[in-house]
Design a protein that fits this description.
Elements: H1 2-60, H2 64-75, H3 77-104, H4 108-120, H5 124-132, H6 137-146, H7 153-171, H8 175-207, H9 212-267
Helix pairs in contact: 2-9, 3-8, 3-9, 4-5, 4-9, 5-6, 6-7, 6-9, 7-9, 8-9
Length: 270
């Protein structure tokens, strides 16, 4: 009996030891799995942050041209193209007017001194040659007046006044077209917006639900045409006002110069 009891006790202790060992192994495995899961989660979070950072960097690295192109496509080529055409044609006319007006600018005081020196010497041909070689509307007006010196001062004054009106009309050439494009650009933009809003409501009706995504997306696309139309009109309006200011300065030069020119002819009349 003692031997049997001893063997039973020994087997029980061995079984308990094996059970404890198995439990320790299970705990170790569970701990390793938890650690591995935490590691995977951290790596996934880091990867997600890295992806977000890369996406943000890509968004920030977009050039102005790329953003403009993207917005142009979103607004719809059908209505953005007329606005773009208005901008291109308007800027072409603006550049042409600015170049013409800059070339029309003349040092009137120096020209008048040269004419006065020649008129005092009776060299009207030399004065005409000086005006012919000087660019600008003021020189052209003076040339027309000198060309009629043999007809009397009264006819000279009429010629200066009449030709001044002609030169003023040339200075204002193409301004009506620029004003037209200033008016057309926002009009096309508003028209595109209205049609885009109608399409957005059609999408809402088709979806059968006023979804914020559908409404916001449709309105965003529709309003882009208005934004581009207004930007085009603002750009052209700024240059239009600059051109008007330049023309006013040249007209004032023409008027003052014509008065001084007539005074020179009257003073040196023979």
């Amino acid at each position: 009996m003692s031997v049997i009891g001893l063997l039973t006790f020994t087997n029980f202790n061995s079984a308990m030891a094996q059970g404890n060992s198995a439990n320790d192994e299970n705990v170790a495995v569970t701990t390793e799995e938890a650690t591995a899961a935490d590691t995977v989660a951290v790596e996934a979070e880091v990867a997600e942050e890295a992806t977000t950072t890369v996406a943000d960097d890509v968004k920030e690295s977009k050039t102005f041209h790329q953003v403009l192109k993207e917005k142009y496509i979103q607004g719809g080529a059908g209505w953005m193209t007329p606005v773009l055409v208005c901008l291109i044609l308007g800027m072409a006319l603006v550049i042409e007017r600015i170049i013409y007006l800059n070339m029309s600018t003349t040092n009137v005081n120096r020209l008048l001194r040269g004419i006065e020196d020649r008129v005092q010497k009776g060299d009207y041909n030399g004065a005409k040659e000086l005006c012919r070689n000087t660019r600008g509307p003021v020189a052209s007006i003076f040339y027309q007046g000198l060309d009629r010196m043999n007809e009397g001062l009264e006819n000279v004054e009429k010629a200066v006044t009449a030709y001044g009106g002609v030169q003023m009309a040339r200075l204002e050439n193409n301004l009506t077209w620029i004003a037209l494009f200033i008016a057309l650009a926002p009009s096309f933009g508003f028209l595109g917006t209205v049609i885009g809003m109608v399409k957005a409501f059609d999408d809402i009706e088709t979806a059968g639900d006023i979804s914020p995504t559908v409404v916001a997306g449709g309105m965003k696309v529709a309003l882009l045409t208005t934004v581009f139309g207004l930007i085009t009109a603002i750009i052209l309006q700024i240059f239009y006002n600059y051109i008007l200011t330049k023309i006013e300065a040249l007209v004032a030069q023409m008027e003052d110069g014509s008065i001084t020119f007539m005074d020179i002819l009257i003073k040196n009349r023979k």
